[in-house]
Amino acid sequence: MPLPDFSPWYHDCDLTGSNTLRLPSRAQFFVAPGTLSGLRCCIGRARREKLPITLLGGGSNVLLPPVLPGVVVHPALGQWWLERHGEHTFAQVGAGVNWHTLVMALAARGLWGVENLALIPGDCGAAPVQNIGAYGVELADVLTEVQIMSLTDGQTRWLSRRECRFGYRDSIFKRELAGKVAITRLMLKLSRAPRPVLGYGDLAARAGDAPSALEVAQTVSRIRQEKLPDPQCLPNAGSFFKNPVVGEAAAQRLLARHPDMPHFPLASGGCKLAAGWLIDRCGLKGQRFGAFGVHERQALVLVHLGNGDREGLEYAAGQVADAVRENFGVALEVEPRTISA
Ligand code: FAD
Ligand code: EPU
Question: How far does residue 274's CA lie from ligand 2's centre (Å)?
Fold first, then answer.
């Protein structure tokens, strides 16, 4: 017998303030269950009433449509705790915990593993979806298991890291399991022994000698604040495109023309390019397309300058991608998740 669900269902709910791009959007229903049984009840009710379910965390990596039929479910499971298993310390974390708050809390306790991922907006439940990454670390480096709940029958189970099939900005949650499960908890393996990863950019120079986990997190936060616009002041979704991966021959052809082009050969073959550099070299930094623009400090970030909608954003993104294709012959793929009506 399932417990009754006490989470209120809001009707005709404005989501404009619930996505960091501030795209105008309204949901038919919105609900934020704070427990597993509450989430299961929401899933059951949506199925009985034949309402499609859209999961929403902090809204920092979504392109929302103007009208979203069905129910938007915001899993608000807000608890986390530490567990000791032998030598190792694990954090078990609810989907509704704010990612950056967790990072700072773990770093402050001297636990290593997630400090390079400081100041990434959003909730823990969305972190596995694109396998968040920054400054040489990805979630997949520390995550051991993910608890999921089926959107069909409300059953929960744990997936191993291997089953999540993580890649660069990729996972099973963008593919086979997209729209089929809610991520409810994460299990992260942390280290009490110092494990600094300082190889990215000028992080080593900025972090100083033998920094603590907290100092690394604070340094990463400062570097990010210098480069990236704060969505509270200038709406954006972080990198708007993924960094493209091209074949070795294509990379060599581009390097012959642009010897200074940043490029990162991959162990799996091919070469990752910096989309921000490509856009920058098209002369688009600071360029405006209607209500949207290319950020003046980080060309990979598209910013919403006011009174725009998703159509306008898609136009601006198309202009940027076309310029990169024409100048470099490289196709860009949008990074944020496009939510269909
Ligand atoms: P949302 O935007 O709410 O959702 C993203 C996707 O996950 C959607 O498809 C949604 O349906 C799905 N989803 C959400 N919750 C769940 C759940 N519980 N179960 C299943 N599916 C779910 N990303 C990086 O990787 N590295 C960065 O350095 C980085 N920097 C950023 C900087 C800025 C300024 C901004 C605005 C964004 C940045 N991002 C970065 C992108 C973003 O912060 C991450 O992708 C983050 O994990 C999104 O979390 P969210 O809770 O906001 O997800
Ligand atoms: N660059 C330019 N001009 C620009 C932007 C970048 O020349 O306008 C050059 C930089 O000088 C550098 C290279 O491009 O040589 C890479 O730039 P940066 O280090 O700023 O990182 P990025 O590749 O643009 C990626 C992630 C970010 C993540 C940072 C740090 C993607 C799509 N983006 O950006 O993630 O924070 O590295 O690790 O992989 C996000 O996903 O939303 C995001 C912000």
Answer: 7
- The SS3 of residue 253 is helix
Q: Which of the following is catalytic: 161, 169, 281, 310?
A: 169
**Residue 63, pLDDT above cutoff 90:** yes
- For the chain, give the mean pLDDT: 97
Q: Does residue 280 have a pLDDT over 70?
A: yes
pTM of the model: 0.98
Active-site residue flag, 335: yes
Confidence of residue 268 (pLDDT cuts 50, 70, 90): confident
191 as an active site residue: the answer is: no
Ligand 1, residue 130: give the atom nearest the CA. 45
Q: Is 83 a catalytic residue?
A: no
- 192-205 in b/e form (b: 16+ CB < 10 A) is eeebbbbeeeebee
Cβ of 20 below 6 Å from ligand 1: yes
Ligand nearest to the CA of 43: 1
Closest CA relative to residue 239, chosen from 277, 208, 204: 277
CA distances from 89 to 20, 100, 178, 189, 286 (A): 33, 19, 30, 6, 45
CA dist., res. 63 & res. 22, Å (int): 9
E-assigned strands of 86-202? 88-94, 133-134, 137-138, 143-150, 156-160, 181-190
Instruction: Cite the DSSP H helix spans in the chain.
Output: 36-48, 99-108, 161-164, 203-207, 213-227, 248-257, 275-281, 310-328
Which pLDDT value is given to residue 137?
Answer: 98
Verify whether ligand 1 is closer than 6 Å to residue 113 (CB atom): no
Q: Which atom of ligand 1 is nearest to the CA of 117?
A: 28
Position 3 scores a pLDDT of 56
Which atom of ligand 1 lies nearest, measured to the CA of 148? 19
